[in-house]
Amino acid sequence: MSLDTVDKLVVFLAKRDGIDKLVKTFQYVAKLACWHVEGTRPDAAERFKKWEVASGLSRKAFRTGRSLTGFNAMRRNPGATPLIRFLAVLANSGEMVYFFFDHFLWLSRIGTLDPKIAKKMSFISAFGESFGYVFFIIIDCIFIRQRLRSLRRLRINDEPKEDTSVKVSEIQGDIVMRSMGISANIADLIIALAEIQPNPFCNHTVTLGISGLVSAWAGWYRNWPS
């Protein structure tokens, strides 16, 4: 591993989102590993299950106060169109509900609050999460459509090739980042739907495991230092 990669890893893990994506990777790798060995090695499956549960609970603890970041996110786009601002309010409101009730879910899971409220808190948290992700996906799709139009305009104008190539590279980079965001949000939406309306597809261990890893690795890509 090169020194440059080590430096980037240090910067990545210094971020709250960086730590979250690393532990999320542990959580869903452990989930898939538990499913893979549960029929042949029950002892190993139990250890993987404990790793998964511990990772999930530690992520919830680390996200304490995260519900407040939605207020800041809603103020960040002063130049956005009224439609984007409206969608951003809906998206961030859903995410704030998700993180707020996730605190109570964590406290009930560790026994500080009545464990009986865990199911209700989980449902409300997942509903807010799903609501927010739908609008985050719509926002990213709108921006990708705008960026594609900008690319087409750049390729038919008469600007110097050097200037055009820089702009094209910037637009393509933004499209990739937003595509990663859509991938992560769709994956997390599947996980949330498994909590809201349990069904054989969303609740299957492989579906949940792959969705969790897609979300985690998309987050790695988006937060990795350039």
Automatic annotation (TrEMBL):
One of its GO terms (cellular component) is peroxisomal membrane. GO terms for biological process: peroxisome fission; regulation of peroxisome size. Belongs to the peroxin-11 family. Its main location: membrane. It is a multi-pass membrane protein. The keyword Nuclease does not apply. This is Peroxisomal membrane protein 11B. InterPro entries: PEX11 (IPR008733). Involved in peroxisomal proliferation. Promotes peroxisomal duplication, aggregation or elongation without fission. Homooligomer. Interacts with ARC5 and FIS1B on peroxisomes. GO terms for molecular function: identical protein binding. The keyword Transport does not apply. It is found in: Peroxisome membrane. The chain crosses the membrane at residues 83-101, 121-144. The lineage of its organism: Eukaryota, Viridiplantae, Streptophyta, Embryophyta, Tracheophyta. Keywords: Membrane, Peroxisome, Peroxisome biogenesis, Transmembrane, Transmembrane helix. It holds the Pfam family PEX11.
